[in-house]
Design a protein that fits this description.
This protein has 265 residues and is of the alpha/beta class. Helix content is 46%, strand content 15%.
Length: 265
């Protein structure tokens, strides 16, 4: 069976694909360009209530206002990935206010590989944000979705986690851990009504991150948002953006290390 396809169970066998799109959305990482592109796309389809969770800032408030302008009811909640002790209470309040159909785990940091190699504390911060914070908040949200008996946890991973590269192995290792965690969590939720979808984009061009002209297999926040919608409609377990990355990474994973080291990747 293809990696991005599962056999639906229960309600999903008879529900139309559009009904799998969320009416309510919780975004962890409320200023993420990918998350906001996804929220805009889902609001245009079916979503009516959005929670934006992140560090309180003018940027978070501006993002909320933009989504309100599209017709959604938007609430802002203070959330810090680096404060796992607060996750259960902070996120629990969202779920006590009503069911959440989809949680988008979109926070993360690229770090600075050259700097972080010389500063273990900085490297640990990358790992704590991308992995530890995600494990904590992911488990809280997964438990709430399971208690509801429905809902999807969408985890924004990266192809950087597929194989360690010299250029970004600190970031890549944190995403590898996150990806493995999300896959296992999806297996744990199987049959409960809730499920996990892992999204693995290539390099995403944003305002703060730009690839060199002509760089292969780059993508955009809007392309990732489109892939998320299609994945939700199929109730997919994994989505690659662009889709051909799945084949490329399958080949790269099996290259001998001596060969892989020489590649300009």
């Amino acid at each position: 069976m293809p990696d991005d396809t599962v056999s639906p169970t229960g309600w999903d066998r008879i529900a139309p694909a559009a009904a799998r799109l969320p009416r309510s959305l919780l975004v962890l990482g409320g200023t993420s360009e990918i998350a906001l592109a996804t929220a805009r796309r889902l609001i245009a389809r079916r979503t009516r209530t959005v929670w934006l969770a992140g560090r309180l800032s003018p940027a978070l408030e501006q993002a909320a206002e933009q989504l309100r302008g599209l017709g959604a009811q938007v609430r802002v909640i203070a959330f810090d990935a680096l404060d796992p002790a607060s996750h259960e209470s902070v996120l629990g309040k969202v779920f006590t206010d009503g069911d959440i159909d989809m949680v988008l785990l979109a926070f993360g940091t690229l770090g600075d590989q050259a700097h972080d190699e010389r500063s273990p504390r900085a490297a640990v911060r990358v790992a704590q944000t991308n992995y530890t914070g995600a494990v904590s908040s992911g488990l809280v949200c997964a438990g709430a979705l399971q208690n509801q008996g429905h809902g999807c946890l969408v985890v924004l991973s990266s192809v950087a986690g597929e194989r360690a590269r010299r250029a970004d192995f600190i970031y890549g290792s944190s995403k590898a851990g996150l990806d493995t965690f999300a896959q296992g969590l999806g297996d744990a939720l199987y049959g409960t009504g809730a499920h996990v979808m892992v999204v693995r984009p290539g390099f995403v061009r944003t305002r703060t991150a730009t690839a060199s002209r002509g760089a292969p297999l780059t993508t955009t926040p809007e392309a990732v948002a489109t892939a998320v919608e299609l994945g939700l409609r199929r109730r997919a377990e994994a989505v690659w953006v662009p889709g051909r990355l799945r084949v490329v990474m399958s080949a790269l994973r099996h290259l001998p290390r001596a060969v892989f080291r020489r590649l300009p990747v």
